[in-house]
Amino acid sequence: MKSKTVGLLALAVIVSHLTGCYSTPDGRNRMGIPFAKDKIESRYERPVDKIVAAAREVLTFNGKLTSDNTVTHVLEARIDNRTVWVKVEEVDVNLSRVLVQARNKGGGSDVDLASEIDKQIALRLR
């Protein structure tokens, strides 16, 4: 009887740690798997405006742009039933950081899509 109780308690702890919330680049929290790798970070020696324009082109080419925040430079798009966020930040005068995050509808990560979008943004900058 004790082993069943301990087993059920361990199962409950494991399940509670596997479900939870993850944060998006625009500062929101959403339901999903929290500890999955879903972000790709890159740095480019380009101004923020050029990178945001390239990211906007890539996201509209691959899917539908759903949100474009010009103040925080965060773009959100739907690509193949997945949500993709692109955040561009200025690190230095001519150095910018690009963060690409991709999640599916259930909250699972899609690092392959994030990597592909990051690669396409880099190719548009050349």
CATH fold label:
Alpha-D-Glucose-1,6-Bisphosphate, Chain A, domain 4
From the 3D coordinates, which CATH architecture would you assign? Answer: 2-Layer Sandwich
- What's the average pLDDT? 89
Biggest sheet layout: 5 strands, antiparallel
What is the CATH class name? Answer: Alpha Beta
| First and last CA, distance | 66 Å
Within the largest sheet, what's the order of strands?
A: 3-7-6-5-4
Report the strand count: 7
What fraction strand? Answer: 25-35%
Compute the number of structural domains: 1
Which spans have pLDDT < 50 for at least 5 consecutive residues? none
Annotate the secondary structure layout.
Blueprint: H1 2-18, E1 20-23, E2 29-32, E3 39-44, H2 48-62, E4 64-69, E5 74-79, E6 82-90, E7 96-104, H3 111-125
Antiparallel strand pairs: 1-2, 3-7, 4-5, 5-6, 6-7
Helix pairs in contact: 2-3
Summarize it.
The protein is built from three helices and seven strands. The chain is an alpha+beta fold. The protein has a five-stranded antiparallel sheet, covered by helices on one side. Strands 1-2 form a two-stranded antiparallel sheet.
What key phrases describe this protein's structure?
3 helices, 5-stranded antiparallel sheet, Alpha-D-Glucose-1,6-Bisphosphate, Chain A, domain 4, two-stranded antiparallel sheet, elongated, alpha+beta, 126 residues
Kindly describe this structure.
There is one protein chain. The strands form two sheets. Strands 3-7-6-5-4 form a five-stranded antiparallel beta sheet, with helices on one face. It has 126 residues and is an alpha+beta fold. Helix 2 crosses helix 3. The chain has a single domain, classed as Alpha-D-Glucose-1,6-Bisphosphate, Chain A, domain 4 (2-Layer Sandwich), CATH 3.30.530. The protein starts with a helix and ends with a helix. It has three helices and seven strands. It has helices spanning 2-18, 48-62, 111-125, and strands spanning 20-23, 29-32, 39-44, 64-69, 74-79, 82-90, 96-104. The longest helix has 17 residues, at 2-18. The model has no long low-confidence stretch (mean pLDDT 89). 37% of the residues lie in helices and 35% in strands.
